[in-house]
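I hope you will forgive my troubling you with a question about protein structure. The record follows directly beneath this note:
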Amino acid sequence: MAQTTVWGIENIGEIQPIKDRKKILLVADSSFPYLSIRNEIELSLGQYVKFSDFKANPLYEDVCKGVETFLQEGCEAIVAVGGGSCIDVAKCIKLFCRIPSKAQWLQGPWEDSGVPLTAIPTTAGTGSEATRYAVIYANGVKQSITHTSIIPNYVLLEPKVLITLPLYQKRCTYLDALCQGIESWWSVNSTDLSMQHSAYAVANLIDNMEAYLVDNKQDAAQKIMDAANRAGQAINITQTTAPHAFSYKLTSLYQLPHGHAVAICLPHIWKYMIEHPEKCIDPRGEKHLENTFNHIAEAMHCSSPSEAIQRFQNILERLEITNPTAKNRLQELDILQHSVNPVRLKNNPVELDLTAILNIYKTIVQ
């Protein structure tokens, strides 16, 4: 589906449902009261009902409350203002709000509810504003909701919201975007278009890292937000690969933010892949994969994939992103080894069996 992107909070009135003065469900996370653009948003929406009753890792029950609010208040459109979890909640409210049977909400079949959804991301990294995916938790189990209709119809990108983010959050979301750009590039599902998005994202994330994370410059923030959005567009085409699959249990086991967990996995998995080209499962073959790794390295201003891996490690050190330390190493490694979702590994260009998974985790967990 076509998505309309608007730059700058001053242009929020260009978004059609807002221009049409539809009654809005404003889905906003805990950062909303402190946003520099809050007043502009509230003044532009006209009639709106705010919904913030959801957790950082949103539950199915949270979405149910959101749907109930949407219906009871007679809302006609949804605007999400926040990070990836907030946007995911809004996506699920849009998807479920016209399905009368709750039994279908998690399992489908789904269809487009026709409710206009606008996303205003307040972080740069998750890419949720550009993808057909949403994550919620039901009975403690992560549920991945996928449907093309939940790609937001409108996206408003305002880089000044990034300036006041806590530094560690900026680092983690930045790394999430960088990992998405790299993973989408080597995914077995990559296309010419996704690789264009990846190349743009990786190059701009690398080139603007210091100005964004160290100097906190607004022009760099704009470039990072743009690059993170492009990484999201790439992932929307390709899906994620092994670093993401490895990251999820690290997040819950060691209470690591998502971007932190993915980033500490990526260089070790990349190293394994360049050392085992014979295990390539991309139907385009080993040469294609070798060329892809070389192109990623070039975008990172490195002469080889090995040098690029070292540069990635140097970035983690520069940003003080450390690896977790196990309390019961054998038990935790066993949990991690058997936690990896095999579906995501199908997108990875090099086969990873249980032995390889364990050995890689041994290099990640101290």
Notes: The mean pLDDT is 96. Strands lie at 4-7, 24-28, 48-51, 77-82, 117-121, 133-138, 141-146, 154-157. The longest helix spans residues 218-238. The first strand starts at residue 4 and ends at 7.
